[in-house]
Amino acid sequence: MLGPQSSLVMYDEEYQRILLLLERLLRESNSKVIFLVDKNGQLIAATGETANLDTTSLASLTAGNIAATGGLAKLIGEKEFSILFHEGEKDNIHISIIGGRVILVVIFDQRSSLGLVRLRVKKASNELAVVFEDLVSKTEQQAVSSSAPSPFAEITDDDIDNLFN
Amino acid sequence: MSFINYASREINCKIVYYGPGLCGKTTNLQFIYNKTAEESKGKMISLATETERTLFFDFLPLALGEIRGFKTRFHLYTVPGQVFYDASRKLILKGVDGVVFVADSQEERFDANIESLENLKDNLEEQGFDLEKLPFVIQYNKRDLPNVSSVEELSNLLNPRKVPELEGCAMSGEGVFETLKAVAKLVLNDLKKAG
Ligand SMILES: Nc1nc2c(ncn2[C@@H]2O[C@H](COP(=O)(O)OP(=O)(O)O)[C@@H](O)[C@H]2O)c(=O)[nH]1
Ligand SMILES: [Mg+2]
User: Fold this and answer.
1) Yes or no, beta carbons of A151 and B127 under 8 Å apart
2) In B19-53, at which residue ranges do the beta strands (DSSP E only) sit?
């Protein structure tokens, strides 16, 4: 499982696997938008009608939301609320936690239903959890093998200065 | 913790502005927002009370450019300063990569600075972080006001470890980008060590 403090690394192969799972979930649940967010608020992947959506803000607020309800849960002696549901006039948001660290967000309207979304999310969650476990072991392997040096090992002060010009 | 995405070739880092209530954290972010080109910034989100006091956090996503072929994105957060919002502050520190402590230079805020810095240490510890090991810079803000403590005095008190420290006037923007740059530098250097 991903520890709360280990830094998250995403590779092409796992990213493609995740996208495929999200796209399938989007179809099977008849939903509008699906995205995955790190608990720290970083967007990992998104699919569906994202063109007019500020996914960065959504990611940050979702993480804040999960963090706040997690705090509430602790206060009443629960570990965490693993599913949150917000009902709107047209659109609804279903939020769930995968593998303790990643947040899955599904936005859907009257073309779908809470029951259907819940059912499909359950299945997809298990498969996504497997991918994230693979990611963790891959990251650990890469960290010990010297054959794949980090691209950041060579960062110079000049590189950093250039960012601000 | 930073998020390195090889698929989209991006690095994401989280920086938190901490400090006592009304020291100028939100003003720092607002200045950065106003001075950053449209294409390099996202929306600034402020979860604030009706009187403009930060309730949960301010959030500003910045795209700074490329480093070794990776787009660098910094997510800047501020915490609510008032003592009674401690639970929210803890949440915002989750996964932090670097901290800016904004001190209020005014003499009458001397104790508030110390209290807030102690609170930062405690809350980090609770998350398993050690402030001494985290990229950390201090900004002495509101230098434009008449009733300020000397920088030397503030530094002796708040900065025994002598981390990078900067004078600022967030309202006019003085020291604001210098502060961001100082913490970004430490964060990126940390990535380098990790790699
Ligand atoms: N004189 C002066 N006022 C400042 C400065 N920075 C912030 N302020 C003011 O201090 C007040 C509180 O600032 P704010 O950014 O909301 O504080 P926060 O609670 O740390 O987010 C506002 O009225 C700001 O205009 C500064 O450098 N000089
Ligand atoms: Mg504020």
Assistant:
1) no
2) 45-48
Reported pTM: 0.89
Residue type, B165: E
pLDDT per position as a tens digit, B38-66: 999 988 888 887 777 877 889 999 998 89
> From start to end of B19-115, where are the E strands?
45-48, 54-67, 70-78, 98-104
**Residues in chain A, overall count:** 165
Task: Tell me the C-alpha distance between B2 and A133, whole Å.
Answer: 18
Give the residue among B74, B47, B14, B34 at the shortest CA–CA distance from B171.
B34
Taking contacts as CB-CB distances below 8 angstroms, the residues of chain B near A37 are none
Q: Tell me, rounded to whole angstroms, the distance of Cα A42 from its chain centroid.
A: 8
B72 to chain A, any CB pair closer than 8 A? The answer is: yes
Closest residue in B to A152 (Cα–Cα):
B192
Residue of A10, A67, A152 lying closest to B7 (CB–CB): A10
Report residue B153 as tokens: 């005095």
- In a mutational test of the pocket of ligand 1, which residue from B16, B26, B27 has the highest number of ligand atoms less than 8 Å from its CB? B27
How far is Cα A129 from Cα A98, in angstroms, rounded to an integer? Answer: 6
Which residues are within 8 A (CB) of A10 and not within 5 positions of it... i.e. 6 or more apart? A44, A135, B3, B4, B5, B6, B7, B8
**ipTM higher than 0.85?**
no
In contact, B47 and A57? CB cutoff 8 Å: no
How far is C-alpha A7 from the chain's CA centre? 14
Ligand 1 pocket, CB under 6 A: B 19, 21-27, 54, 78, 81, 141-142, 144-145, 169-171
Number of inter-chain CB pairs under 8 A, A vs B: 139
Residue A58 phi, psi (nearest 5): -55, -40
Of B43, B94, B181, the CB nearest to A40: B94
pLDDT score at A4: 42
